[in-house]
């Protein structure tokens, strides 16, 4: 709805020609095998007056001309081949267009502005996919014909007061339409405040949804307000329902010797944890002892969450709903209540704990001789931070020095074998913030994976792989039909690999594409060659874009990036629901139970993958906000930077010292008109032929730090 003419809620005359097309398609979808005439369609739509009926007939003719429906008998109509209509999830852009993400379809369906109907971000929609205009056409396009299910009805945005205070708008930053707020539903919100708005209606012909303000969050430049807003926007509850907390607090979390007697008692074996210094949920521990035959017994001990969280309980239902803990910049939104995540299940030092363990006998070359899985009881003797363990690896004396050095040596041997076998060596740097007491960023630093991190990583990978093999293979190494939850990673897109190969040649690098091992070895060589170079981040980013997204499923296809034929998530049940599934199924198989029906677990796997994606998006949003907040102090200052992304509307540029990324709009680039060269990831001056290409160094000035849009605006500065 245009703000200057908000009263004009009726569609313009030329829009009437398609007023009922969406409704006609919906009616015909509901009757796929029964052709209907216009009277039957009118009756289904409760159209009774002559004008609407005449308009309905015109709309039917429009759909016939567009070949979306067919006249199968005289005056009777049927939806066209249903494979032209697909169901997917709407991903709206800030320009008003959308991409429809469809399961099983490699390429998203692009929907132009004006053809998105009244879809909102994340809605499940039915889209009509246009036939390809020609064989060389690369983009799949369509239009939304039906909203099947709303993703949600509450959103966050900035409130703005309309003309003379008679109405208001809530502006959105994530591609959704702005909401129109009638005066009586403003509910004391003040201009500029961050608010929660509830969708109440979307009248026919209106460009804006109607809403009601249900909560005022506060000023958007206050960190706590923005983080709270992110949690609400992504439907991430910061607190547990009272009844869930009560159930958790009433659990018996004491260690019972009768229960220990049912388990393998490993409390006397030297055991410790290695975690980040700010961690509270220690869900894995390692034990080590040398056997009489000279081999090493390594225990990978995982918190036995499913001992406490039983199927059918309120805690279980809440854990499934959340499916993952969420790690925002300044807080953790846990999957389990604190009494479990930080106390009962956390493998804290000097406390007996119930665990589910993989115990591996290996020789001095890290070759696995024997494997055992089962429930255990352990006693962690020491809690190490990664920094403390790293100091010991680098030569400092300390507790369990011999054990840590032995595990480090075995881990390095396993890693070397894994890389040789064809694992991808991505070592992405994580951006972290020094925060003050009000959670405002005072500095930025980078988390780099060192030997102590890789030590833990290797033994967790070992346990995840071996559990998966144990369940999926019989004693002769042949695949059985047991249902399990796998973490899979598909092969990379061959077209994207070829694009990467051609692009990096401009920088003097090569990528050999062949069989799996050849490609990965060449990729790892490339990633090693760019280390420390200005183009490192660019090449790593492009390489990662060639890769498929990892997901959970019961249909095993292996894990390409790790070079594992069988892989699961078993080692973090405090923070991941799929790990709880993995624990329960393993115990069922150890108890001799038959394989369950896969469909139930496939639904759980899909839900877990969806929640994982939502959590990752929320985490990225919190990082973007903190980066913009940190850069406010540098508005007007200049920095050396390099180009990290190129689009037709501008270039994205990153400052290496902070990893903060900003946008330089093409319309603001002086001296020429710049054209987008998609193939070479560049903007090229039409007259001067000046080229701004992915990876190129540039000098920039920080123009603006927009906390509401979580966006930095830069401008180019002459060197």
Automatic annotation (TrEMBL):
InterPro entries recorded: CSD2 (IPR040476), NA-bd_OB-fold (IPR012340), RNase_B_OB_dom (IPR013223), RNase_II/R (IPR001900), RNase_II/R_CS (IPR022966), RNase_II/RNase_R (IPR004476), RNase_R (IPR011805), RNR_Ribonuclease (IPR050180)
User: Which keywords does UniProt give here?
Assistant: Cytoplasm, Exonuclease, Hydrolase, Nuclease, RNA-binding
Coiled coil stretches, renumbered: none
Catalysed reaction(s) here are:
Exonucleolytic cleavage in the 3'- to 5'-direction to yield nucleoside 5'-phosphates
Top-rank EC class of the record's enzyme: hydrolase
Among its keywords, does the record have Cell membrane?
Answer: no
Give GO cellular component annotations, separated by semicolons.
cytosol
Per UniProt, residues of the S1 motif domain are 636-717
SUPFAM superfamilies to which the protein is assigned, alphabetical: Nucleic acid-binding proteins (SSF50249)
GO terms (molecular function) for this protein are:
exoribonuclease II activity; RNA binding
Q: Does the keyword RNA-binding apply?
A: yes
Protein location:
Cytoplasm
EC number(s) recorded for this UniProt protein: 3.1.13.1
Signal sequence residues: none
Primary location group: cytoplasm
GO biological-process terms attached to the record:
mRNA catabolic process
Q: What does this protein do?
A: 3'-5' exoribonuclease that releases 5'-nucleoside monophosphates and is involved in maturation of structured RNAs.
What family, per the record? Belongs to the RNR ribonuclease family. RNase R subfamily.
According to UniProt, the name of this protein is Ribonuclease R
Which organism does this record belong to? Chishuiella changwenlii
Q: What is the lineage of its organism?
A: Bacteria, Pseudomonadati, Bacteroidota, Flavobacteriia, Flavobacteriales
Q: Which gene encodes it?
A: rnr
């Amino acid at each position: 709805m245009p703000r200057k003419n908000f009263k004009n809620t009726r569609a313009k005359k030329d829009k009437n020609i398609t007023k009922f097309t969406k409704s006609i398609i919906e009616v015909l979808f509901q009757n796929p095998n029964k052709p209907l005439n216009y009277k039957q369609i009118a009756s289904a739509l409760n159209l009774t007056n002559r004008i609407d009926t005449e308009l309905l007939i015109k709309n039917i003719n429009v759909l016939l001309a567009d070949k979306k429906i067919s006249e199968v008998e005289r005056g009777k109509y049927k939806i066209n081949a249903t494979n032209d209509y697909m169901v997917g999830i709407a991903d709206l852009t800030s320009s008003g267009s959308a991409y429809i993400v469809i399961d099983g379809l490699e390429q998203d369906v692009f929907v132009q502005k004006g053809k998105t109907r009244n879809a909102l971000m994340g809605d499940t929609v039915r889209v009509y996919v246009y036939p390809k205009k020609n064989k060389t056409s690369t983009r799949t396009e369509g239009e939304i014909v039906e909203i099947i299910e709303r993703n949600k009805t509450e959103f966050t945005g900035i409130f703005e007061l309309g003309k003379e205070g008679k109405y208001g708008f809530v502006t959105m930053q994530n591609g959704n339409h702005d909401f129109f707020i009638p005066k009586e539903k403003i509910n004391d919100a003040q201009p500029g405040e961050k608010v929660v708005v509830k969708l109440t209606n979307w009248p026919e012909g209106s460009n804006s949804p109607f809403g009601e303000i249900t909560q005022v969050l506060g000023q958007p430049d206050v960190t706590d307000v923005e983080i709270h807003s992110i949690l609400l926007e992504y439907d991430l509850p910061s607190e547990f329902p009272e009844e869930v907390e009560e159930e958790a607090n009433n659990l018996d979390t004491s260690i019972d010797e009768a229960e220990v007697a049912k388990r393998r008692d490993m409390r006397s074996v030297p055991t410790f944890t290695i975690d980040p210094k700010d961690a509270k949920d220690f869900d894995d521990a390692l034990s080590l002892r040398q056997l009489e035959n000279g081999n090493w017994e390594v225990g990978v001990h995982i918190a036995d969450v499913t001992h406490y969280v039983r199927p059918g309980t309120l805690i279980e239902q809440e854990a499934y709903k959340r499916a993952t803990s969420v790690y925002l910049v300044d807080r953790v939104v846990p999957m389990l209540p604190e009494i479990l995540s930080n106390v009962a299940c956390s493998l804290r030092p000097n406390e007996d704990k119930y665990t589910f363990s993989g115990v591996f006998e290996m020789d001095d070359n890290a070759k696995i001789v024997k494997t055992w899985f089962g429930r255990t009881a352990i006693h962690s003797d020491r809690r190490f931070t990664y920094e403390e363990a790293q100091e010991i690896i680098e030569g400092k004396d300390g507790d369990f020095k011999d054990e840590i050095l032995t595990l480090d040596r075995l881990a390095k041997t396993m890693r070397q074998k894994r890389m040789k076998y064809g694992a991808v060596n991505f070592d992405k740097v994580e951006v972290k913030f020094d925060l003050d007491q009000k959670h405002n960023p005072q500095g930025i630093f980078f988390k780099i994976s060192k030997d102590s991190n890789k030590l833990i990583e290797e033994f967790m990978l070992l346990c995840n792989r071996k559990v998966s093999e144990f369940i999926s293979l019989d004693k002769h190494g042949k695949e059985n039909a047991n249902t399990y939850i796998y973490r899979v990673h598909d092969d990379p897109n061959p077209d994207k690999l070829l694009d990467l190969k051609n692009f990096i040649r401009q920088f003097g690098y090569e990528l050999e594409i062949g069989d799996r091992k050849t490609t990965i070895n060449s990729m790892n060589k490339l990633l090693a060659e760019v280390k420390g170079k200005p183009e490192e981040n660019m090449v790593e980013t492009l390489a990662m874009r060639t890769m498929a997204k990892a997901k959970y499923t019961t249909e095993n296809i292996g894990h390409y990036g790790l070079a594992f034929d069988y892989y699961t998530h078993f080692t973090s049940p405090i923070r991941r629901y799929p790990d709880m599934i993995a624990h329960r199924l393993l115990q069922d198989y150890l108890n001799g139970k038959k394989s369950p029906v896969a469909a139930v677990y496939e639904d759980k796997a899909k839900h877990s993958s969806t929640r994982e994606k939502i959590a990752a998006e929320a985490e990225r949003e919190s990082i973007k906000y903190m980066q913009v907040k940190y850069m406010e102090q540098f508005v007007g200052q200049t920095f050396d930077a390099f180009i990290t992304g190129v689009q037709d509307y501008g270039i994205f540029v990153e400052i290496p010292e902070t990893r903060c990324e900003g946008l330089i709009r093409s319309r603001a680039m002086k001296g020429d008109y710049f054209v987008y060269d998609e193939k070479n990831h560049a903007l090229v001056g039409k007259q001067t032929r000046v080229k701004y290409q992915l990876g190129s160094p540039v000098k920039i000035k920080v123009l603006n730090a927009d906390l509401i849009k979580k966006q930095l605006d830069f401008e180019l500065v002459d060197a």
